[in-house]
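Might I ask for a little of your time on a matter of protein folding? The record follows directly beneath this note:
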Amino acid sequence: MLRGSASEAVQDESIASYFGWCRAAEAHINWHQHIDLIYNLIRGCNPAPGAWSTHGGRKLFVFDARRHPARTLAQSKSSVGTITRIDAQSMFVAVQGGQIEVIRARLDAGKKLPAAQLCAEAGIGVGDRLGG
């Protein structure tokens, strides 16, 4: 119940702390999570440190993405974490609840690139599985 009795207090700066940026452990993408959780993780980690997964033993950082919700499991196109399509600008990854369109990414310490360009340069293809 609201009583209007809240009091204002000055913060004791001698014991205050700064809540820093998320670390690598928090930025790791679990492709088995729901589309909304993955999408929000990617947005929250952009521009730094970048949400990340793996491909072929290398870290794949994802910076820009769109979500494409699906109404049925069949519309997800494949098993979670699998690249279902690469078009002129981006790649699509199947997740629970739809697909994540990866727009901009980088491998390890490389440059941030359009996802399609990164796939072409790194040999990433449709059917490849991210993570694990």
User: Anything to note?
Assistant: The mean pLDDT is 91.
